[in-house]
Amino acid sequence: MLFFPNARITLGLHVKAKRRDGFHDIETVMLPIGMYDALEIVPAIDNQTKIILSGTPIPGDPYENLVMRALKLIQKEMPFQPAINSEAPEMLHIYLRKGIPAGSGLAGGSADGAFMLKILNEYFKLNLTPGQLKTMAAKLGSDCPFFLQNKAMVVRGRGEILETINTPDLSGLHLIIIVPPIGINTSEAYRLITPEPERVSIKEILAMPFAAWQENLKNDFESVLFKTYPYLKEIKNRLIGQGAVYASLSGSGSALYGLFKDAAVLSSLRKDFEDCLTGHYQILES
Questions:
Q1: Short-list 54, 136, 130, CA closest to 93
Q2: pLDDT one-digit tens code per residue, 106-121
Q3: DSSP state of 48
Q4: Of the candidates 132, 174, 138, 133, the residue with the CA atom closest to the CA atom of residue 264
Q5: pLDDT higher for 36 or 183?
Q6: Burial of 183 (0-12, 13-18, 19+ CB in 10 A)
Q7: H-state helical runs in 36-96
Q8: CA neighbor of 159 nearest in space, from 171, 175, 169, 148
Q9: Which range (140-149, 240-249, 250-259, 272-281) has the least confidence?
């Protein structure tokens, strides 16, 4: 079984409060984009579950990857053998090819974990309900529940409160993503944030004309991360200087993106960034 977990960007990100459980209440709009990993599971011919990684490097122990944690969670939550498809061998070889850079704020790891839950539900014929899958996804990570629906959503709470939103018409705009050669630890980024509970909601801001977005649609992580990594601010300023109708950090970074009306500017953008960094560039119709 082969699936292609996709990345997402955030339109605005408000950190509203620190919770007693150590997480934070946020408000953001998440938008799926066409940048992908590849995730495949096959029966283990050697009767031993393994994960085989390729593509963009992932730091840390492969067996602590969100894909493996999803498998362990399914095994814990579904302990009775009759619930598992007897025709599907329990031991698996898991192949994960990373195309979404780690530590970039594009939520590739969360996508992998959520997709793994969906794959295992189908593979083992577990018949888990959407509610059960959402509960499991929330245990894996704050961004994971979003990828079960994988469409434009307002995301609140620690990531478990989801509301479908009709975003403004983005057809005709071109998206470029710049991923600098650094990874930012999400937990460390949150430690730098001072929550701000009361302000205009992101949902209301998105209803404004595009011209008002740059002034009003804010990602709270920019104010702290731009001080630590000044060239992130430089990248954003370059995107705006080249004509982006909106540019922002995605999630807790390090990726930044710009939305452009003119596709012709994209080739000059690549040339402009050659002296600044090496990274990943992607052009999308969104």
A1: 54
A2: 999 999 999 999 999 9
A3: -
A4: 174
A5: 36
A6: middle
A7: 66-77
A8: 148
A9: 272-281
Which residue type occupies 235? I
φ and ψ at 194, to 5 degrees?
-105, 110
95 and 131 in contact (C-beta within 8 Å)?
no
Cα dist. 260→33, 86, 180, 239 in Å?
15, 51, 20, 9
Confidence of residue 89 (pLDDT cuts 50, 70, 90): low
Domains in the chain with CATH codes: 2-164 (3.30.230.10), 174-285 (3.30.70.890)
Give the integer Cα–Cα distance in Å for 148 and 91: 24
- Whether 101 and 36 have beta carbons less than 8 Å apart is answered as no
Query: Can you tell me the distance from the alpha carbon of 222 to that of 193, in angstroms, rounded to the nearest whole number?
Result: 10
Residue 46 DSSP one-character state: T
Q: Which residue has the tokens 């560039």?
A: 281
How long, in residues, is the chain?
Answer: 286
pLDDT of residue 268: 77
100 DSSP 8-state letter: S
Q: Are 50 and 44 in contact (CB under 8 A)?
A: yes
Distance between CA atoms of residues 192 and 154, nearest Å: 24
> For 147-204, how does the pLDDT look when each residue is reduced to its tens digit (9 = 90+)?
999 999 999 999 999 999 988 888 888 888 888 888 899 899 999 999 998 899 999 9
Q: Provide the pairing of β-strand 280-285 with 246-249.
A: unpaired
Beta carbons of 105 and 254 less than 8 angstroms apart: yes
The type of residue at 205 is I
Question: Which residue in 10, 26, 15 sits closest to 220, CA to CA?
Answer: 15
Of 110, 103, 2, 106, residue with least CA distance to 58: 103
